[in-house]
């Protein structure tokens, strides 16, 4: 659904005054008090979003709002229709039907679940986790690219062409239990010896979040690099836990976080600081707190089975295909 003049519909919670516009006759030394929000007012976006907060006892109705575009879904079909009718009475809206396209994403639905794909090159990593690391590398040279970087971009484009119909699949029969994988490549960048963090999170068998990111500062050991990666992964994990709970999908008391570095896991369970860990004290306290609270449960996984390894370094084709198979992408042509 699309709302016309969305920001004009917000209700202001504070007094805001403005000078009368040119052409409007008014007494001297007088100003206008706004009764509704206007475009250009800093309060307008928040006032607009604040209009969409309500509960229903019959089921779940979710409304995803991006400026003036919205998606309405949920397990309460009657509630969805009531919400659409209520919004149409208050705002001038256009119902675009069943979701097929949103913010550059193509959405295909079936009885088996949903498929997401992306056709715009600049946003490809949104639905193509398999190119996340490669794009992360070449994007570092956007300011002053050379011929080698251009050649690398062409290889990425050739790969994308060969995997054009690879899509993320969100199964209708998948469980709704969150799990996370964290990995790091220590000092992999020969220019500054900074490490690369890689993580991926699954909801059941569906991949919902991933990241390939160079760490801010060099790490003095592989354990330190892995521990910094654990900190980033824990932050994303907590954010998704809160988001799922807000959607009415509570998670178990602990979410499994898989790591392939035993030393990093030992640091998370050891509350004694020593010379090798005192300079990463913030990450230590952060991870230990959530491990002690029972929010995060660290699980060891062998490096050969670590799917997050795909986001930390380049791989030979056979290893790349093995890791890619763990992400549960599917090949499906559009209808």
From TrEMBL:
Domain of life: Eukaryota
Signal peptide (from-to): none
Family annotation (InterPro entries): DNA/RNA_pol_sf, RVT_2
Domain Reverse transcriptase Ty1/copia-type: 1-55, 59-122
Pfam families listed in its UniProt record: RVT_2 (PF07727)
Entries under PANTHER family matching the protein: GAG-POL-RELATED RETROTRANSPOSON, OS10G0432200 PROTEIN
Protein name: Reverse transcriptase Ty1/copia-type domain-containing protein
Organism listed in the record: Rubroshorea leprosula
